[in-house]
């Protein structure tokens, strides 16, 4: 097991390097980079704003281009003044001592290193913040939705799947399947628009139940004087509508997977033997059947667990005016903010690879008969 884990970690590095390399090469050929946008702005045309929209230039923008001096200054600002090979290496690992000091001390000084492999992702081109600071700033919104939707989805789906398996073919099974499949067929953003129109803050809404924006009412007069429970209730009020749209579509797959796994186990010989020994139905279901039916459910659990902190939906964040990671990633692509694009891609890819490793290890924890030893293949 230890050798397998070490091999998997060693394989993560070429995988990450390959992902970032492909993206890095693509960014070099995509038109509309930061310098092109600045040229367009100074030429009197529109360019992209921080929100990803169109910014119309004012009278100060004359019909002129960039002189060579300003062009070189912009290349330096956007870190494009260095050769392509050096920019590529700086993306992963680069040693640049900032002061005279002994060689060993200089090498061991963390500040002298930069690159993704030391978790330094640089600064945004337009926001005057580091990529890690921006992710930390947007993380509470995405994590709030991700963590809550994760636990709600798994808790409800597992118990609902067990109930459907026990009452297979009953009226409850039929109606619950119909409701779950209808929820699965409705896109989350369509449901969000429907809720905003009917229950949003607009004048045409039937009832004003959905707040205007954000996950809290911070900034409103008197908010700081609210008690903990008043702030917590306000948080749940803001969270309810986007959370409902997040989780509704995820019920079908996990619920039906749980039901089918349970049905398959319930018809096996060991279940009949357990019942013949006089064990209660609850003991048979939750001590024997549940344990053996968990293997298919574990497949996506670790990845979902890690992704719950970094989940993001551009459309839902736009509709409910939430400033999360989905909106940040979209704006970075539109603005050609390469440090954010590459930095978030590296973090998300690393989380996915770790989640896949945890998935494989979970198989062994649930079923010790599974082994990664090649000699047992």
What is the level-2 CATH architecture name of the domain at 131-376? Orthogonal Bundle
Which series of helices and strands comes N to C? HHEEHHEHEHHHHHHHHHHH
| Strand segment count | 4
The poorly predicted ranges are: 46-64
Instruction: From the 3D structure, determine the CATH topology of the domain at 131-376.
Output: MetI-like fold
Q: Please, how many helices?
A: 16
Can you list the strand order of the major beta sheet?
1-2
Quaternary structure state of the chains depicted: single chain
Coarse morphology:
globular
Provide mean pLDDT, rounded. Answer: 79
Largest sheet: 2 strands, antiparallel
- Please estimate the helix content: 55-70%
**CATH superfamily assignment of the domain at 131-376?**
MetI-like
Task: Provide tags for this entry.
single chain; 377 residues; mainly alpha; MetI-like fold; two-stranded antiparallel ribbon; globular
Short description:
This protein has 377 residues and is an all-alpha fold.
Question: What does the model show?
Answer:
- Helix content is 64%, strand content 2%.
- The chain is an all-alpha fold and 377 residues long.
- It has a domain of 246 residues: MetI-like fold (Orthogonal Bundle).
- The protein has a two-stranded antiparallel sheet. Strands 3-4 form a two-stranded antiparallel ribbon.
- The protein is globular, with a radius of gyration of 26 Å.
- It starts with a helix and ends in an 11-residue tail after the last helix.
